[in-house]
Fold this sequence. Notes:
The protein is of the alpha+beta class.
Amino acid sequence: MSVGKIINSPSGDIRSVLQREYNASLKTFQGFWSVVESNVGLFVGRLESINPLHGDIVLNSVSRVDVKCSFDKVWIRGSQVKSLYVLGGKDRDRAERIALRILSGLHRDDL
């Protein structure tokens, strides 16, 4: 199992990047486990939908890695998203391991 797609934006505005990528590949990734790095925190969940116009992401069966919370569904505004990692498999444990690696590489000020 490997990471299927990593999408990030150095400019901090991932909305334009998601809009370009949506029709090409992101629509086919719905249902896969993903890791979302945002200004709010680091989330692991099953990708339900992406709004390509605004960059909003909806995740199901979500856990927030940096504070150990879990939710049924989370909606993350596109303006808050820093990076989206879509995994090429359906293994939640793998997604959580990748999220922990990302978390260990971040400084406290980044979250």
